[in-house]
Amino acid sequence: MEHFKIAVLAGDGIGPEIMAVAVAVLETAGKLDGLTFAFTEAPVGGAAIDATGEPLPAETLNLCQSSDAVFLGAVGGYQWDTLSSDKRPERALLGLRSALGLFANLRPATILPQLIDASTLKREVIEGVDILVVRELTGGIYFGQPKGIFPEKKGMRRGVNTMSYGEDEIERIGRVAFESARKRRGKLCSVDKANVLEVSQLWREGITKLANEYPDVELSHMYVDNCAMQLVRWPKQFDTIVTGNLFGDILSDEAAMLTGSIGMLPSASLGSSGPGLFEPVHGSAPDIAGQDKANPLAQILSGAMLLRFGINQPKTADRIEQAVLKVLDLGYRTGDLAAPGTQVIGCKQMGEQILAAL
Ligand code: IPM
Ligand code: MG
Fold first, then answer.
1. Which end of the chain is less congested by CB atoms within 10 angstroms, N or C?
2. CB of 93 closer than 6 A to ligand 1?
3. What percent of the chain has pLDDT over 70?
4. Peptide bond into 296 cis (omega under 30)
5. From the CA of 248, how far away is ligand 2's center (Å)?
6. Which domains are seen in the chain, by residue range?
7. Which mutation among 81, 249, 277, 279 tests ligand 1's pocket best, with the greatest number of atoms within 8 A of CB?
8. How many angstroms separate the alpha carbon of residue 193 from the centre of ligand 1?
9. pTM over 0.85
10. 231 near 255, Cβ under 8 Å?
């Protein structure tokens, strides 16, 4: 019997609905392999702002730090959109990432054969696509100094953010990417803007230097604008992509949409030690919150990533991934994936189907 402490931060919008389903799935799948979990809930994002005035209360962060893994739903909603940027729900994500040192964000985008018709792209373009975006998560323009809105002459103001990377930050994310590529198809594409930005020139140098240590991985480089284009033109050319925080934010959404619905995609954020954080790539979808319409599969698949990368239980992770495929094979879909010949069900029912498949 192995026991794990999991911090559950359901957050806002559809977060609580999809989290309830995913926690039940983890519990049931774990039981089959002799794993037990202590799930402890804590407020984050808008829910935490309403309860405590802070998007990431100290108690929530303490709980995360003393857990084996953090399972997060989604944060944000219209009612908090007018708050200043340091008080917004999204701050909680940035706070968690930096406090837990989660510098490596793994965002897989895999086309499931069952969902090919859900994509807006042609079948021949996306069939077989299997991409992993490795996004640097605690540096770059999200965290670089100086930042702020500063007064200028004549009553004008200037907004400033700084894109900066140190060689140590480039090396550690590079290593995660090379290691990941090695476990996949052995191809790594590093994405930057080295034709314009000095920070990218150093990035490219650092990644290139590392390549000597991974002779089995084939390294290429691509400018970010070209990559945005290539992702929709011929996505099958990519295996593993490594890039900085901002480029990774944008490209991972683009890669996600190749699969038809961002409602399918999980992510893992990892540091060099301590608990990892596992969350869907999609947001809180306030427009459908509370209506039992949300697709819980990204949250469930994030649970599988938690098992695989967070607490080293790959067998149970496989179980969950297989159950998801099986339910899709049976023709069940949430509304975001509706297609002719499929049966549209709600969030709770999707959860029940996954439990039955397990
Ligand atoms: C993401 C999100 C976040 C980010 C926002 C909500 C802060 O877009 O996880 O991709 O920009 O990193
Ligand atoms: Mg994003």
1. N
2. yes
3. 100
4. no
5. 8
6. 1-105+261-358 (3.40.718.10)
7. 249
8. 20
9. yes
10. yes
Tokens of 293: 């319409």
User: 3-state DSSP call for residue 2?
Assistant: strand
pLDDT tens-digit map of 30-55: 999 999 999 999 999 999 999 999 99
In this structure, which residue's CA is closest to atom 6 in ligand 1? 90
Q: Which of residues 345 and 118 earns the better pLDDT score?
A: 345
Nearby residues of 286 by Cβ (< 8 Å), 6 or more positions away: 12, 13, 14, 76, 77, 78
Question: Residue 241: helix, strand or coil by DSSP?
Answer: strand
Q: Is 249 in the pocket of ligand 1 (CB under 6 A)?
A: yes
Q: How far is CA 225 from CA 133, 196, 230, in A?
A: 16, 12, 9
Q: What residue owns the CA closest to ligand 1's atom 1?
A: 249
Count of beta carbons in the 10 Å neighbourhood of residue 180: 19
Residues annotated as catalytic (active site), given as ranges: 142, 193, 225, 249, 253
Span 286-321, pLDDT tens digits: 999 999 999 999 999 999 999 999 999 999 999 999
Q: Which residues surround ligand 2, an ion (CB under 5 A)?
A: 249
